[in-house]
Amino acid sequence: MFAAEFEYRKAGSIAEAVQLLADNPDAKLLAGGHSLIPLMRFRLARPELLIDIGGIANLRGITVSGDTINIGALTTHAEIAASAEVQQANGLLAEAAGGIGDPAVRNRGTIGGNLAHADPASDWATVLTALGATVSAQGPSGSRTIAVADLIEDAFATALAENELIATVSVPTLAANQRAEYAKMAHPASFYAVVGGAVVVTMDGDRCTAASVAVGGLTPRPVKAPSVEQALAGTTLTMDSIADATARLSDDLSAAGVDIIGDVYASADFRASVAPVEVKHALLHAIGLAHH
Amino acid sequence: MTTRIFGSGIRRREDPRLITGQAAYTDDIKLTGMVHAAILRSPHAHARITGINTDAAKAAPGVLAVYTGADIEGVLNPIPCAWAIPDSDLKAVAYPAIASDTVRYVGDAVAVVVAENRYQAEDALELIEVDYSPLPTVINPEKSLDAVSKKKQEDAPNNQAFHWVAAGGDTDAAFADAAITVSETINQQKLIPNPMETRSAIASWSPAMGELTIWNTTQNPHIARFVTCLVTGVAEHKIRVIAPEVGGGFGAKIAVYPWEMITAFCSMQLGVPVKWTETRTENYMATTHGRDHVEYVEMAANADGKVTAVRSVVYAGMGAYLSTAAPGIPTILHGLMYSGPYDIANIKADVYGVFTNSTPVEAYRGAGRPEATFLLERLMDKVGDAVGIDSVEVRRRNLIEPFDNNRDVAIGITYDSGNYSNALDQLLGHVGYDQFRNDQAHERDHGTFRGIGVACYCEICGLGPSQVAGAVGFGGGLWESATVRIYATGKVNVFIGTSPHGQGEETTFAQIVADEIGVDVDDVEVVHGDTDTTPMGWGTYGSRTTVVGGAAVALTMRKLRDKAKVIAAHLLEADEADIEYADGQFFVRGAPDRAQSIQDVALQANVAWNLPEGIEPGMEASTYYDPPNFSYPFGAHAAIVSIDPDNGHITLDRYVAVDDCGPQINPMVVEGQVHGGVVQGAGQALWEGAVYDDNGQLLTGSMMDYAIPRAHMVPDIEVHSTVTPSPHNPLGVKGIGETGTIASTAAIYSAVMDALKPMGIGSLDMPLTPERVWRAIQESGYTGNGHSHNHGHDHGHGHQH
């Protein structure tokens, strides 16, 4: 629990951080530090240089413009959970932020750091995939937009270039006729997602006109569920239609061609079997059919 | 009229410093010239060390020394086991502080680096080259005993540490005659205690004085000094052990570990103070664990559910070495508690202590009694099912009748006092048992699965009479001491041999003093945790601090009151026989307005200008109290759970506790102990468990993987009590530190099995993870109605339970 030796630089701007990244192949960016610092203390990560981006003011903060919520990469989960603007514009974002880890994690951990770390058990990756969010990646030659669904390529692997950092996460607001929910089976130690299911449904009365469904936690990267989405779209949502639709998740998991994660707490078999249950729970909560 | 301070739920005086971060733990202490040690630990669960090269480490920046097993040979004696249970063919494996030829678990010490700072020490650890030749590994205690061919421990063929049998009555005959027999296989999984403060030690050797001072995060500094003397060879009077603020122990800080002995060795070699503080990773691999039993248990009963016999065969994992008190836990503290609160005529406990290639096992909150309670309650449920009567009714038919002064049980011990059926009745009323059963029947028809579990318990606390300690092989006494000094200013210091580390005795012992002699509770300070300033005592564990140590305090106050009475009589120019005492005032009978206060008397005693003939100056007394018997707290707990059959998630909906610890000095402290205990027991039932792979690697080696219960995972715990004084000590107290843990694992497990009863699920291993529950439901053939109404998952922020 004592990190190996490393250099430390505090970057004053995004450009400086990008330059430092370009100049130092064994550098790591330090945001909230909630994933990186433990890895360093276990000596599983041994960066030669830590580039602290924590002081870069324009990587922080939440603005809503039109139908987009822009969240600076360094915004903490706690800030997102507590933001009245976020709660108003997209309640799922606030709810998901408030369910990450525990208060200490939420007070330090950042949305950009979480995505860049690409832990398969991340709540954000699943939720933001279902919401159709994008990130703005900043590199030496400017910025580019990457869908979160494309950003996360594999466990702990992203589409970011070595010298790119996430500057902003952009999330669509929810329309008045949209409902969104996230249900997870949380690991009782870490509260990471063993299985998480995120849904966004567009409703016309009781009828679902469009759906976006993603699952995570059980897969190296979030998996979209087009079969479930298609089964929901155009359907009146009832206990039975939801059960029928979510039963198709196994097709989507097969089609995605990803391994199902299993570990000492929950086997791959179990996770695959309860993933439709979590999606079902999210849907039932989204449309108010869940009993409490 | 003033409220009596004994019995008042005043706030704990310990808390301000603890919750504002001002408490000073061992690791907070910095000594001039202090250097830092880091320990290289075996990555193998069992291997021969075939070579070790420390040259590069010795040459690393800041490194002062590197020591291996060869360096301590002949200097440090092996770590002793202090509980050699008799008639058990006990075989200890040599337990060197640093392994020299064989490592026996992942975490065994192989070398130590001392450097100017800890980072340098850690860097140098990476430079030590060790060649290992791996040997066969066994983790499961039962399989370990079977693994004769593997012969892990040359000193203990067949890996058997001991074989202990206790019996009363004729168990075989009772089973042969029984109308009903039930059996169960119970896996008491290995648990990791997780005190908030990891282990830590600072050793400071003074070559000029020949004195060794050790700051040690221990539950029992006097035992630590005793064992340090045996291991280092430094004479006992030249060793001072200080337990500063100790951040929880739960049994894991009873043992004397190799690590502080290594730290002492380093200081004695280098002549400078050396600090060693365990990382959390080391804590998981190298601080003692709890439980780890594989149990085969059976119960025999008449057709009406009257239990006639209980018997067991228990394989209790000891880990790689015998830790300080380890052999006593599955035996004395477990096998002797097989009667619980029940009248059972024939009892037999058959316990094998077994070496495994895992972290040594020690006491863990409850220590043996949670396991005993669990098997009794599990079997009671099964007898109820077999007879076809409710699980509460079967308990009621077997509870011992109320008694207020000693009751022998078949296993050969004598309970102090009990009213077990009263506790059960109170519990059923508080929880609304009958109503729940009615509701449950309807709910089951609608696909909702809730269950209730009731656990009755009686446990052994207040360890204990020293004569018994000797008879059961405990390598020390079990008396306690107190010295109380009242100064000229009327302020009071209480010096105690026990060593509280979170339990609140700085507050509750001050309440005893204030109650006994009428001083303000804020005028009393309790001093503990330093062998140089406190009288001898055997430590804080086994819920004995208040029962034994508190009794010593009370008796000391009574001595001081008697002395004060003599002085007061002299000052009042009255006959001692005419002096009365009330609320801190001494006065001639009938003349309370002309009183001498305890403060007046203390002043006179300390200045000694005018003392009666034959009375020594000073206002100080000591008591060395050896209790006549143990104490036996009891109670009944109930848990209500709901289960989502879709994903196996269990929600703990309600928890109700009725405990009887005798008179309560501070009900708020009692409630806090029950809360903590219940949650820790819930941890075993639902979340916790040390999992190893086949090579002996701990897979649950961090707080990311090992689930300690957090506040939001449990409901408000409803705490109630009954009061049945113990005749075995002057305060009538029984102990409350472990009751919650002893009852709650059994109650929660029973509730889960009750909820699963419609699926016909017989038994499950703990912890009851969603997967285990879900898998059992799948295998039961239950298909449900597709519309479960209790979605018991952690559903984002707004829906977390």
Walk me through this protein's architecture.
The complex is a heterodimer of chains A (about 290) and B (about 800). Chain A has about 290 residues and is α+β, with helices and mostly antiparallel strands. Chain A has helices spanning about 15-25, 35-40, 75-80, 85-90, 90-100, 105-110, 110-115, 125-130, 150, 225-230, 240-245, 250-255, 270-285, and strands at about 5-10, 25-30, 50, 60-65, 70, 135-140, 140-145, 150-155, 155-160, 165-170, 180-185, 195-205, 205-215, 225, 235. Chain A is built from 13 helices and 15 strands. In chain A, β13 (about 205-215) and β14 (about 225) form a beta hairpin. Chain A is globular, with a radius of gyration of 19 Å. The mean pLDDT of chain A is about 95. Chain B has about 800 residues and is of the alpha+beta class. Chain B folds into three domains: about 15-135 and about 195-250 and about 255-285, Alpha-Beta Complex (Aldehyde Oxidoreductase, domain 3); about 365-460 and about 630-780, Aldehyde Oxidoreductase, domain 4; about 480-625, 2-Layer Sandwich (Aldehyde Oxidoreductase, domain 4), CATH 3.30.365.10. In chain B, the strands form seven sheets. Chain B has a seven-stranded mixed sheet, sandwiched between helices. In chain B, α15 (about 505-515) runs parallel beside α16 (about 545-570) and α16 (about 545-570) crosses α17 (about 600-605). The chains are: A alpha+beta (about 290), B alpha+beta (about 800). Chains A and B meet through α5, β11, α11 and α13 of A and α4 and α20 of B.
